Amino acid sequence: MTTGAYLDFCATTPVDARVAAVVLHFMETEFGNAGSRTHEYGLSAARAVEDARRHVAAACGAKSDEVIFTSGATEANNLALLGLAPHAATSGRLHVLALAIEHKAVLEPLEAIAEHHGIEIELVPVGESGWVAPDDLASRLRPDTVAVSTMHANNETGVVQPIADLAYVLADHPAYWHVDAAQTFGKLPGLDNERIDLISMSGHKLYGPMGVGALITRRRGYQRPPLTPLMYGGGQERKLRPGTVPVPLVAGLGEACRLALSEQTKRESACSAERLALVGALGRLHPQFNGDQERVLPHVLNVSLPGLDAEAGMMLLRDAVAISNGSACTSSTYEPSHVLTAMGLSEQRTQEALRISWSHEPSGVDWVAVADRLCDALR
Q1: Which of 210, 211, 175 shows the shortest CA–CA distance to 195?
Q2: Sheet holding 353-357, edge to edge
Q3: What is the pLDDT of residues 8-36, one digit of tens each?
Q4: Can you tell me the distance from the alpha carbon of 141 to that of 158, in angstroms, rounded to the nearest whole number?
Q5: Domains of the chain, earliest start first
């Protein structure tokens, strides 16, 4: 079967061979339960979990005991936002700000706390640039704002939010700040900003295994964010996420974070080189790049090709490159991208939008040949 070169790395990444080796080791050799402290198998597993916790923490400048392992960023988002709802109710602060371009893994938990806890959700627009104006967010802060949720970079456009400026805006406000860093964790600096209270991440966006991620719960002084667990039944992960810790997945996540941090500069450089080749080849197609290209991740390109419907473009190229037209979590609905719509792009431009995302490894794609095929389709 011909599937084409994989270029949908925003949806998921392959597991790095070095990470896979770690996962397999803890599945086959050191397979103990980290909660079993009476024998060496369990103690070895517990050490592996704590080593992984340190590597995850190092990738965002946190302390290891601030890392709560989850099944991925979606669960981490839910734990952060649903977990703050009881505190909002008891404190009487019932206003939450979030960006209109947030992933559904943030928007849907927000809808749930609005419905079940009476919390007012206010979505902040971003405009065609794809990033929020700090002054706009500042103007919407209220004394009863209990939380602010902003993604670090968008999963469809790759546009990076002005984290340092937002931290300045929030410096003197007590709202808890949650950052969905699924697309940037280990890839982009900025998450070490101490004003960020909660950070969500996923292993499978970082060349780690699927089914594991983390929520960083950064302390303010000695106080942890006032989260209520979503599940009960054990004391694991500081009682915020009960259940047996999946040691092989957690160890793999730790290794993926360690590698990402040590190779960050090299990976970014390789991604930028691939971007230059791609953008250069598309030039004769009169591309419309969606989002501020001065603030975009080096491995993501969201582009509309005038006259070419995105679905037709993906079908045309399916034997050459595997690309998408947006979030893998919602692409099956065939609805217009809520991200591009929120940015104010026209319906036609939204329907023509393709998302191409690649890795630091050479793709092997002949971008000139890809452009030739697209040119033929537009004649």
Answers
A1: 175
A2: 288-289, 300-304, 353-357
A3: 999 999 999 999 999 999 999 989 888 88
A4: 26
A5: 5-14+264-378 (3.90.1150.10), 17-262 (3.40.640.10)
DSSP symbols for 261-330 = HHTHHHHHHHHHHHHHHHHHHHGGG--EE-S-TTSB-TTEEEEE-TT--HHHHHHHHTTTEE-BSS-TTT
Please identify which of the residues 60, 257, 271, 329 carries the catalytic annotation.
329
Give the side-chain half-sphere CA count within 13 A for 148: 27
Active site residue 329: yes
Residue 159 tokens, joined: 């546009």
DSSP secondary structure string, 110-175? Answer: HHHHHHHH-PEEEEEP--TTSS--HHHHHHH--TTEEEEEEESB-TTT-BBP-HHHHHHHHTT---
- pLDDT tens-digit readout, 223-276: 999 999 999 998 898 889 999 999 999 999 999 999 999 999 999 999 999 999
Smallest CA-to-CA distance from 216 within 178, 262, 265 is with 178
| pTM for this predicted structure | 0.95
